[in-house]
Amino acid sequence: MSRSVTGPEIAELIKLISKLPGLGPRSARRAALHLIRKKDSLMVPLARALNEAVEKIVECSTCGNIDTSNPCSLCSDNRRATNLICVVETVGDLWALERAEVIKGQYHVLGGTLSPLDGIGPDDLSIAKLVERASGDDVKEVLLALNATVEGQSTAHYITEQLANAGVQASRLAHGVPVGGELDYLDEGTLAAAIKSRKMI
Fold first, then answer.
1. What region does 30 belong to: left with phi over 0, alpha with psi -120 to 50, or beta?
2. Structural domain contains residue 38
3. CB of 107 within 8 A of CB of 86?
4. How many CB atoms lie within 10 A of CB 41?
5. Residue 172's beta-bridge partner residues?
6. Which parts of the chain are beta strand (E)?
7. 127 pLDDT exceeds 50?
8. Is 191's pLDDT higher than 90?
9. pTM for this prediction
10. Cα separation values, 6 from 14, 28, 31, 119, 121, Å
11. What's the sign of the alpha-carbon dihedral 97, 98, 103, 105?
12. How much is the average pLDDT of 26-53?
């Protein structure tokens, strides 16, 4: 058994950092050392920000986004169109679309995708609430911006069936050749999706 070279507080810091996505024990040790070296300029403000986040961050009861207000700043923005709801799997997907500044309507975060093997069914996701929102008078289109995975596509299919009587148009993101992509480097599935989604010019 190797001897610990740090006190329990530092060991706990490393252990917690290692639980962040993309960080293993070695990366966590480097991150912890960096924080310790920059204690006043980085570690103290980070600890303060984390404390404030714990106290103030809430989940939006309308769309499922996370913010410091409920409803969130997106749902409260009266400049956004109310006739479009863009459905995403996670808050991270919502943030990605917002960075691209392409969605001017509302959002709805499902909280994941249907996955029977993992025990995730319709009741585990925010699908019923989506159908309720989509049945509102203003909503004309529900854009299913789900990942191009088996789970994402099966979830999109299920939601489309649930929206059949809501009087809205269901749409999905086009799948195919990315901007700047070279055909020789693309997989067969991407190429097939690009051909099927082709448009006349």
1. alpha
2. no
3. yes
4. 9
5. 144
6. 58-59, 66-67, 84-88, 106-109, 141-144, 169-172
7. yes
8. no
9. 0.83
10. 10, 14, 15, 41, 45
11. positive
12. 96
Task: Give 115 or 189, the one with higher predicted confidence.
Answer: 115
In CATH, what number is assigned to the domain containing residue 182? 3.40.1360.10
The dihedrals phi and psi of 6, each to the nearest 5 degrees, come to -130, 165
DSSP percent split of the chain into helix, strand, coil, nearest 5: 45, 10, 45
Q: Is residue 128 part of a domain?
A: yes
pLDDT band at 3 (very low <50, low <70, confident <90, very high): low
The per-residue pLDDT for range 57-99, each reduced to its tens digit, is 999 999 999 999 999 999 999 999 999 999 999 999 999 999 9
What is the span of the domain harbouring residue 154?
83-201
Q: Would you state the structure tokens that stand for residue 50, as one six-digit string?
A: 């984390």
The string of DSSP codes covering 66-109 is EESSSS-TTTT-TTS-SSEEEEESSHHHHHHHHHHT---SEEEE
Is it the case that residue 196 has pLDDT exceeding 80? no
Q: Is residue 30 part of a domain?
A: no
